[in-house]
Amino acid sequence: MVVDELGTEAGRHITYPGDTLERRLRNLLSAVDEPLLFVFDDFDQNIDDVAGKRPVLDDQGRGRVRSEAAEVLGAVLRAIRAEASPSRVLVTCRYPLA
Length: 98
What we know:
Elements: H1 2-6, H2 8-15, H3 21-31, E1 37-40, E2 49-50, E3 54-55, H4 67-82, E4 88-91
Parallel strand pairs: 1-4
Antiparallel strand pairs: 2-3
């Protein structure tokens, strides 16, 4: 686990419950020596749907991401940008995202 490899002090900064997800991610990115790859696989699970059956798509065929998932993905992207990290994000989904 990444926290174990970083050591006790750095691990505390990453897992501190009072910090926002974005702050914890920024702490993680500043503590590691190598770029990280954040993988969000099968992101279709985070597209709004109609009664659990059909995805809700906009008029351009893009899926509307549930707010909770958008918040997590946004926190990861903002943390990477704020830390000027070479880390990357990979999202797999059957639909383009709105």
